[in-house]
Amino acid sequence: MGHFQTRKTQKTENLINHLFSNDPSKKEAFVAIKNKSSCDIVVRLEGTNKNFYNLDIPKQSDNSILITKGNYNISTNIC
Predict the structure, then answer these.
(1) Exposure string (b/e) for 37-63, b if CB count within 10 Å is 16 or more?
(2) What is the distance between the alpha carbons of residues 36 and 75, in angstroms, rounded to a whole number?
(3) How far apart are CA 41 and CA 26, in angstroms?
(4) R_g of the chain computed on alpha carbons
(5) How many CB atoms are closer than 10 A to CB 72?
(6) 3-state secondary structure string, 28-54?
């Protein structure tokens, strides 16, 4: 199994575990974004707690990520 496939499998496993967990004390939140535009975008989530994430989202598709709970500014450029 290649590095990309291993990483994708780990990401999927983490998301499923998070979605089916009933523990409100978890320190992570699930974020899902749908891109309805005709171009690929990168969404930047920048937290007040110094955390930041870049989420690549292909055109007419969606992507998701687990992030540390907190307050975030979300920004992107759309074609």
Answers:
(1) eeeebebebeeeeeeebebebeeeeee
(2) 16
(3) 29
(4) 14
(5) 19
(6) EEEEEEEECCCCCEEEEEEECCCCEEE
Question: Both tokens of residue 75?
Answer: 């920004």
pLDDT at residue number 4: 55
Helix (H, G, I), strand (E, B) or coil at 56: strand
The one-digit pLDDT tens for each residue of the chain (79 residues) are 565 567 667 777 877 877 777 778 888 888 999 999 999 999 999 998 889 999 999 999 999 888 999 999 999 998 8
Residue with tokens 């759309």: 78
